[in-house]
Design a protein that fits this description.
Number of domains: 3
Shape: globular
Oligomer: single chain
CATH superfamily of the largest domain: Spore Coat Polysaccharide Biosynthesis Protein SpsA, Chain A
CATH topology of the largest domain: Spore Coat Polysaccharide Biosynthesis Protein SpsA, Chain A
Number of strands: 30
Radius of gyration: 24 Å
Mean pLDDT: 95
Helix content: 10-25%
Distance between the termini: 36 Å
Length: 466
């Protein structure tokens, strides 16, 4: 069985923690590991698992590679989508890749941003699904509902047994309809998790979406290997319709079966669901970070950067990050997308990027900014290098705070120790490397008329960035 992890989501409903450049699947929302890492780690104990296939956004490739390395999963195949095309093309691509790796493997398709508390129940359901998939079924998991939730799609099962033929997939219902579904006993929340043989799902694509399958075949045939990544062909993949697997296959096939799953599942789709799945204090609060409260109840309060104090409120979401604070009524928290839309309309960076940005060589934190200047704290991993580059609109001053820096400035290469500094003139080719065994940390002061990240001309880069 090959796990296929779908990791292309943007997670805007958990803004300001989740943003386009680092969405929720890469955040540590429950413990030390990210949701993406948890998705892989919870598979431990299943027998005969092959190396996973990860399908992700091109912009997240180094995040994925680093997080795989942290959990010792370096054998994974990382497939890069040049653009977002929903779940159907991504799964078709993964099936084509899986078929090329073996005779006809079973695929376990999982989203990267779900949580599941009961691993034993989950494993039992996967083993049951594996047997059903071996018999040519297209298996999905239906979550046994504990409330008439209106935020999920539903699956209608033909019978109330643990494994049943699927009668219908239905869209998110209103509350009255959801209540009727719960009363019937044969409706489940649609989890978006699947198990099937590669040949089975490819045959269904051939039957119901042949043009999509052809585009995916071309995208993989023309793919290029880039470091540890499989970079799909842009033009061929872009030609795919942007459709879900439910719409493309599951609603049309006669092979769909559903396995009832009761394993403490959540898609962590909103701040309210995050509150639901955390341990709470005696006043029903979830408090994360440096938080002090008095006369507060039923609230989720999260601090990343500084002390947050809250007094005399009920049923609130309060989230603080280094560059944004969000306060919402818990009952309205699912509407946070409207705030993100307003930020995007105003071209605000806070909609898409964090103050702390991760790069393949390390990360930087924009700690201050004003007219014609910006200050960053830059951390470079041992043995890593930034690209050889120049800027047309800014000069830079570097001060080494920790470690040793190898600095290329024009034709000169020099070593800087802690508390030493250098100046990079505007228009001069330069490079920063960490030749040491500990992280290199510098303070960079930029000055100039334009300080955007797109003012970079690269001449040489270890990570094949343009």
């Amino acid at each position: 069985m090959i796990p296929v992890i779908m990791s292309g989501g943007s997670g805007t409903r958990l803004w300001p923690l989740s943003r386009k450049n680092k969405p929720k699947q890469f955040l540590s929302l429950f413990g030390e590991q990210s949701l993406f890492q948890d998705t892989l780690s919870r598979l431990s104990g299943l027998e005969k698992l092959e190396a996973p296939i990860i399908v992700c956004n091109d912009e997240h490739r180094f995040l994925v590679a680093e997080q795989l390395h942290e959990i010792n999963s370096d054998t994974a195949k990382i497939m890069l989508e040049p653009c977002a095309r929903n779940t159907a093309p991504a799964i078709a691509i993964a099936a084509l890749q899986a078929k090329s790796q073996g005779d006809d493997p079973v695929m376990l398709v999982l989203a990267a941003d779900h949580i599941i508390h009961n691993h034993e129940a989950f494993h039992n359901a996967i083993n049951q699904a594996n047997l059903a998939a071996q018999q040519g079924n297209v298996v999905t998991f239906g979550i046994i509902p504990d409330s008439p939730h209106t935020g999920y799609g539903y699956i209608e099962a033909q019978s109330k047994t643990s494994l049943s033929k699927v009668t219908a997939f239905v869209e998110k219902p209103n509350k009255q309809t959801a209540e009727r579904y719960i009363e019937s006993g044969n409706y489940y929340w649609n989890s978006g998790m699947f198990v099937f043989k590669a040949s089975t799902i490819l045959n269904e694509f051939e039957l119901f979406a042949p043009e999509m399958l052809l585009s995916c075949q071309h995208a993989l045939a023309r793919a290029k290997t880039d470091l540890d990544f499989i970079r799909l062909d842009h033009d061929a993949f872009s030609a795919c319709p942007s459709d879900s697997l439910d719409y493309t296959v599951m609603e049309k096939t006669d092979k769909a079966v559903v396995i009832a799953l009761d394993a403490g599942w959540s898609d962590v789709g909103s701040w309210s669901s995050l509150w639901d799945n955390h341990d709470k204090d005696v006043h029903n609060n979830v408090l994360v970070g440096d938080v002090i409260v008095e006369e507060v109840s039923n609230s989720y309060i999260h601090s990343e950067h500084r002390l947050v104090s809250v007094l005399g409120v009920d049923n609130l979401i309060v989230v603080e990050t280094p560059d944004a604070v969000m306060i919402a009524d818990k009952g309205k928290a699912e509407n946070i997308k409207t705030i993100v839309t307003k930020l995007q309309s105003a071209s605000r960076d806070e909609a898409t990027v964090h103050r702390k940005c991760y790069r393949p060589w390390g990360h930087y934190d924009s700690i201050d900014r004003g007219e014609r200047f910006q200050v960053k704290r830059i951390s470079v991993n041992p043995g890593a290098s930034l690209s050889l580059q120049l800027h047309h609109h800014r000069a830079e001053h570097w001060v080494v705070v920790k470690g040793t820096a190898e600095v290329t400035c024009g034709e000169e290469v020099s070593l800087l120790a802690e508390n030493e500094s250098t100046f990079i003139p505007l228009g001069t080719q330069h490079r920063l490397c960490n030749p040491g065994q500990v992280p290199l940390e510098i303070i960079e002061v930029q000055s100039g008329g334009y300080l955007g990240e797109d003012d970079i001309v690269r001449f040489d880069d270890d990570y094949n960035r343009n």
